[in-house]
Design goal:
Helices cover 13% and strands 58% of the residues. By secondary structure, the protein is mainly β.
């Protein structure tokens, strides 16, 4: 509902052999109310819009220079409405500035906050509900209300997104968020009865995510947890014309690490296998086992390092992340 509104429409309407319109539209709406409280919070009570509307019979309806503004947000775009196939397709290309993301927290279902400045390209089936959206830009002081994640996704970050929805489900082709603390990436598909999301993360300082900030005392405390109880250490090194690590192992009630390989200069190659019986000893939240194999090989240009690992019910203490990590992770 709208309490007060003003609509200015000027231009030409052709009714000849080929009907056409060319209008300039300006609208000011106040006292706008929605039944959906989350939508009300996002859109607000006051909206202004300006655009040029062009249409010729048999062609798309065009909205050129669309400028939409509300409290704390604005969007500028060129859009078109294409009718056919018993539906209408809205396409739009433009940019948006969101000065206060907390307005969209209820719609997002999280304690969202921060700012965003994004370019976007949208195609939306108004009747069928299918859409394709790509977006690229930046965020500032982004937060999701997740205590361990918010410190590393804040500040100035680059965001890129490509997602589409069809009758088969939702496809996340691209998601990436990166700043000087973290680089997050994800892609995958979710259908009505199954789905898969592949994700990766790179942290400049894992202590920032774990809440220890890389402090020596915290590192020592972690080492104490991993080496608690009786720890057994053994190694055998063979020295002749080569340096061979025949075996090395460190075993405690928390972990089992084994290594072997060659340490000869110019031919170094080392394989380390390890199992952490409770991944919570690293993350601080009780979880399942974590197994990993690291291989390092010396080459002409330096070292080539590969890592292969599996985990079951890996836990971080962050509820949203733990849902993704439930079951087997590779």
């Amino acid at each position: 509902a709208v309490e007060n509104g003003r609509l200015d429409l000027t231009g030409t309407l052709s009714t000849g052999a080929v009907p056409a319109v060319n209008f300039d539209l300006a609208a000011e709406l106040a006292g706008v109310t929605f039944e959906d409280a989350a939508l009300q919070q996002a859109i607000g009570e006051s909206i202004t819009a300006r655009t040029r509307i062009l249409w010729t019979e048999g062609e798309d309806v065009e909205m050129r220079g669309l400028d939409l503004r509300g409290a704390g947000y604005s969007a500028q775009a060129d859009a078109a409405l294409t009718a056919g196939g018993r539906t209408s397709i809205l396409t739009a290309t433009g940019k948006t500035v969101l000065e206060d993301l907390s307005r969209f927290a209820a719609l997002a279902g999280s304690d969202l906050s921060g700012q965003a400045d994004l370019e976007f390209d949208l195609s939306y089936d108004l009747l069928g509900g299918s859409f394709a959206l790509t977006s690229k830009g930046g965020t500032r002081d982004l937060a999701l209300g997740i205590a361990r994640l918010d410190p590393v996704i804040g500040g100035d970050a680059a965001l890129e997104l490509a997602v589409n929805r069809s009758p088969e489900g939702i496809a996340l082709d691209t998601f990436s968020l990166s700043n000087d603390q973290i680089a997050l990436a994800a892609s995958g598909r979710v259908a009505n009865d199954d789905g898969r999301i592949d994700y990766s993360a790179r942290l400049a300082n894992s202590g920032a995510f774990m809440g220890v900030q890389g402090e020596v005392g915290s590192a020592a405390a972690m080492a104490a947890r991993l080496l608690r109880g009786e720890t057994q250490v053994s190694a055998r090194l063979l020295l002749n014309d080569r340096i061979l690590l025949d075996r090395a192992s460190v075993a405690s009630p928390a972990l089992d690490i084994r290594a072997q390989g060659e340490l000869t200069a110019g031919a170094r190659q080392l394989t380390v296998t390890g199992e952490l019986f409770d991944s919570g000893d690293l993350t601080g939240a009780p979880g399942g086992p974590l197994k990993a194999t690291v291989t390092a090989r010396e080459g002409d240009a330096g070292y080539v390092v590969t890592l292969d690992g599996t985990a079951t019910d890996l836990a971080t203490g962050v509820a949203q992340a733990d849902l993704l990590l439930r079951g087997a992770t590779r």
